[in-house]
């Protein structure tokens, strides 16, 4: 950019703004400012795509201030909409100076704004109002505020990429069209992190109208290194100190060293679980690194943000909450612990570092295993090359339409159905909504008494339930119960836990980590939605299992991992020497030879056909069938569910499934062979995948839980409140709502967020056409086994430490079981596991055919004794005999395994049959199976 061009950007402003720029020390515009200010001063709509820290806020707001300064109006001249209240605080602090200097009033309005302040804003509106999407919804219905909004000439939407991928954003797009009904056309300015389809995000912002795209190239200013730390002698000592394994110790040491080498470092992790687990290790070390994530209390988050900003903390261990532009001061380096899973995540996170004049954004990705390393290498290369994922816009979400129909009725009191339809379909995500769907939604709302439908005049009118519905549904965020976690001794709030975690895990005596500290659950109060805890000193334990934390790896990244394996595997064939291959890869990817060598060791040990981007390896051992397939999370999830459903339908038995971006692992019923699985792949019609998936979802809690959430947004559940999903009969809900827009939307949302039906159908067609090869091998391979730890993050040491094992042992030994003789069927006894004989036998008939059952399994005993059994009783009887066979063969060891949570006879047999060096390994395997059960029990029927 020439000096003339540089000068032209700021020269476009009037004298007042130019003087303020000089007073503020703005000498030279940043690249976004140079390129975006001229079209914005001209009044054009624009999307500005640039990293945090490049002056995006001033880029958008200086032209707005310039337009507003010196003009008279009663109402609000500009809205600045942000997705987070924390950003509201930041924006107010940043914008108030400009407002005071230019004689413009800047104010903030959100859910915590006092009634006094709200009334003041209605009577004397500010020139610029900083707010959230939800608060805009409420403002559009207020009589005085509607008058204030008539003067809006500019709307700035911050973090628009974040909103584009959510129903909050879909709701906002209609909200902006409702605002347009009041104020007429206004300038729209979007601020976005790097996205793969800026044109699409621009259309999302403007409703499909022309939009100037100003995109700053991030990849060329990115300096990312992928590194798996070398293990040193010091790590052995550190592992003992932290009571963890040496691999984790090396990760903790490496991160600590990087933080020490820089002034201010953000350490990003992918889940809150990992943040808590790592945070507890850093706390043990006494480092000045603190934890920051969304489940901590507001006060705790603000405290660590302020301490980091002032330099009291050198490092902040954080999740995606810090991807957004919360101001925590200057950041000179970013660490990403484990692969960031997506190119956009890497760019947003590492993009927070640097941005001083002529500085690049520097970051280090610390990897933990071969999958992790190959994935991070692929993502780093794609980031530099500009291969960013597109925004995943929610097109046509029907519960959003329902919500906004009620909003339009609140706006106007009554509105013609076709006028409402045209306003809704001006919003980009709803441009293809047809009239039939719209009418179905309006009838559903009328049936639920949310609005009154006057079919004679085609009018939608307010009714008694409209006001209550609308204000209870300002947000499109699902209404799930959140339990406050409180220290029983002090009464202070530690953080929060979601409903699913509390239901599936939180019972008195359980241990978890939050805010880097260990807590034992003392009491769960469901009425007050509180979990009372007391602190413990134990350095390990379970970590809270928040819902929806898994970041899906996209198809393009998984394919490049497959390509790396293909190229490297071919180079390694017959040589056994990874060094030259590592040197070759290090020329093309940003990692040292040690890191690449560590990942290549897996491929070097792999003697079967290599799974690649266009070749699937199917391996089988016993009842385990693993397809190593490089198609990414959502395609593998879709294909896995199809296989599970069809095989389960054929056998009448459930099929266990676990997927990651590179593998589909199945546990098939007895009698199913690998050829049955291959036949299912080859014979299933690709066009039938959608129907198969829908049928399988009807048996899954995921659809029923989603159905309850969507039904609330339609006003179908009058008695709905947070947490009521588990009190409402979900099967009854499914039966009642199937065939309605509520059911259609619940299914659409699940398919949109978790599955990829169309892409999976394409993959299946390519397999059947021979474009993707399939090889089989009758053993487990190093690459196939690589998924055993994939995606499970840093929950606990790979080999759980002695204190955790001792806790598991004591808990199981103290648990009670029902011992029941299957020979005479007369004797049963409830007994603590520790008091069970090494080889249990019936005192009445002397038989050793004793079933060991959970203490609540009285119905199993009843089933065994029943002569004329139904299907469920037959199933329970079979399980009882399987249990007795195990106890007869393995004695008390079988009783211990069967007493564990979620360990049935089949899994108990697997645990018992493994060869081990000591008894601790036996309990480690039990613990692993219990964790697996906790992860999957809520999803599969």
From TrEMBL:
The keyword Cytoplasm does not apply. Residues 254-409 form the Helicase C-terminal domain. Keywords: ATP-binding, DNA damage, DNA repair, DNA-binding, Helicase, Hydrolase, Isomerase, Nucleotide-binding. GO terms for molecular function: ATP binding; catalytic activity, acting on DNA; DNA binding; helicase activity; hydrolase activity. It comes from the Archaea. Gene3D superfamilies: P-loop containing nucleotide triphosphate hydrolases. PROSITE patterns: HELICASE_ATP_BIND_1, HELICASE_CTER. Signal peptide: none annotated. SUPFAM superfamilies: P-loop containing nucleoside triphosphate hydrolases. Residues 37-213 form the Helicase ATP-binding domain. GO terms for biological process: DNA repair. Pfam families: DEAD, DEAD_assoc, Helicase_C, WHD_Lhr. InterPro entries: ATP-dep_Helicase, DEAD/DEAH_box_helicase_dom, Helicase_ATP-bd, Helicase_C-like, Lhr-like, Lhr-like_DEAD/DEAH_assoc, Lhr_WH_dom, P-loop_NTPase. Belongs to the Lhr helicase family. Lhr-Core subfamily. This is DEAD/DEAH box helicase.
